[in-house]
Amino acid sequence: MFDSISSEVRIFPPWPELNALRSPLTDGERALAQFLDDNLPQDWRIYVQPYVNNMRPDVVVVNPNIGLVVFEVKDWDLSRYHFKNDKLVATTVNNTWIEEDPVKKAQWYAKSLFEQFLVSDEALLPVGSYPNSRSISRAAVYFHCSSTASVYALYKSRAKDVIKAGRDSLSILTLGHLVPNFRFAKSKFIRDAQITALDNIHSWLAPPKHAISQTRTTQLVKGQARYAKPGKGCHRIRGAAGAGKSFVLSHRAARASAEGRKIAVLCFNITMSHILRDLLKQAPYDVNWENVTWMHFHAFVIGLGIDAGIIVSNANNDDDDLDSGSSQAPSEKSSIIDPVSVLKQIYAGKHTPDFKAPTFGGIYIDEGQDFDPQWIDVLAPMLGQGGELVLFADHRQNIYGRDGGCDRAETLQHCRFRKWAQLPRKSFRIPERIALFLNDFSAKVGLGDEEDLPIEEFAVPENNGLALEVLAWHNSTSVESALDSMDSAFSALGNPNPGDVVVLMPDHKLGLQAVSQLQGKYHQIVHVFGEGGPDSPESRRRKMAFWMGRGGLKMSTIHSFKGWELDNVILVWPPPEYLKYLNARQQAALFYTGVSRAMRNMIVLNCNRDYDRFSEGWESLKSSPTRLSDIFDDDIHF
């Protein structure tokens, strides 16, 4: 492990650099780091004040065969602290205030590092199981001016999973308390995929001053480059599906970072954040990863709220993912955490004394139509002088009905957008017949507005022996019968590897039904559905592990597949009763978005009689494929 790292150095930054920091280490940070460096076996790495994705834990120790421990360090006299109504209260002779709880912060860091780096690999999440994250990514607090007994006396039964230590724990006899299993060769909880991820995490916890080595160079094409140059002010850029919105955003954000700006790259969906991270890594610029934040919007706000001491509830609350379809309206789900309230409290100074709100030279929002205009407006005050806020959107994919990026004089007080810019009217991934259908469908149902122009140029898929532009529509009488026809759909696609196929559905409940019905037919199903609903811990964790590189048939809500694309898409469109919580326009936007995920072949398994009419125009589309009427048992249009 850590083969590329010099065996002479295992603490980062090295001690000469730590000793020269502009803001010196606290006594507690120095004592803990020195003790760990002196006593941990050589196969452990130690990171002091690493900056990764808007997080700066005090100390992190990593062994790829064991896991990691994240320490929050405080030089506090705990006799001045107590809990009241589950809030940590500090007192002096003249003052009393609510203090940020370091346990909550350590929990958030440990959880975030696990989700961002350790659940993104193939075979990590086999069907029906989930690894014990707290055995692999542990949270710890160290109080340098207090005894371990005092720490336990303060916290009592709170946060039992968190390692708690005082100064007397800096002993070789108690090293196993600070870093459990440090003597083991390998943890019984670790998986091969996580060993690889932990081995690679060094490049994030201790990145070079600029670029992490890129996997491939990406180039802009004519018509995109002008929108990839950083500027100042508030900008909005629209483009059709496949026009390169995320691609241009990543170039613009990476270039801003290379110019020395601190940047935040935000989206609404958890799964979309995976894509943006990869695109940033691939952009051909010297990205300074110490000044880059990428994540979905609610996680961004929750992280700030915890750092500011405003959010003091359980840091392992899984309700910060509000991105999937369910029987709840978005406004009802979003009431769990009000991001506008959290950020306004920060701006009003209602935070812990040592908190400083971040200032960005660039805030970049992908899939901006998914954002409430108030969310966008409350982000704008984080811009520094000469900074820019840039929003990319396609309002034909406005599946939540939020209209982010549109002019809203009553809500946009800080973010005054310039007029819309338009990316070239070309889709770089959608083939002609699917693009023509999307244009026709959008016109019939009235998606977007007059500025959302139709696609005029199309991608030309390589003819590599796979089925080429299969466009099939199968009308079915029920969801059950539609799912029973999955083998026929695979035959129509030329029986591709299941890993190259995604089955999309507009509803979480439908997804659970589909997984249950298809579970025995395929060796592995990689999906985003949880028994507790779209906002359940199981569903959220599956979304964090949902990557295209994983083997197995993919199954997802349309919501969670936004930003992704695949050669073969099978869209299961249910009867109206499954989607009664959505208005007709939102349903149409979901359907449009689902179809637009296909890079080569598209099959619709339709159970909604209101949508039968949309198959009628497929026959007249150019370059009709080979007839597939013998594939399915009942009515098919193509």
Quick tags:
Rossmann fold; disordered N terminus; 20 helices; six-stranded mixed β-sheet; 19% strand; 3 domains; disordered C terminus; 638 residues; alpha/beta; seven-stranded mixed β-sheet
Describe the structure.
The protein is an alpha/beta fold and 638 residues long. The protein is built from 20 helices and 24 strands. A hairpin with a 3-residue loop joins β3 and β4 (67-74).
Task: Quickly describe the structure.
It comes from Thiorhodococcus drewsii AZ1. InterPro entries: DNA_helicase_UvrD/REP, NERD, P-loop_NTPase. With 638 residues, the chain is of the alpha/beta class.
What percentage of the residues does DSSP assign to strands (E)? 15-25%
Uncertain segments? 2-7, 120-132, 208-217, 314-335, 622-631, 633-638
- Nearest-integer average pLDDT: 83
What structural class do the secondary elements suggest?
alpha/beta
**Helix coverage percent of residues?**
25-40%
The CATH architecture of the largest domain would be 3-Layer(aba) Sandwich
Main β-sheet, in a few words? 7 strands, mixed
User: In what order do the strands lie side by side in the largest sheet?
Assistant: 20-21-19-22-23-18-24
State the shape. globular
CATH evolutionary superfamily of the largest domain: P-loop containing nucleotide triphosphate hydrolases
The radius of gyration is: 26 Å
Cα end-to-end separation:
53 Å
SS summary, helix count: 20
Work out the count of structural domains: 3
Query: How many strand elements?
Result: 24
Query: Which fold name corresponds to the CATH topology of the largest domain?
Result: Rossmann fold
CATH first level of the largest domain: which class?
Alpha Beta
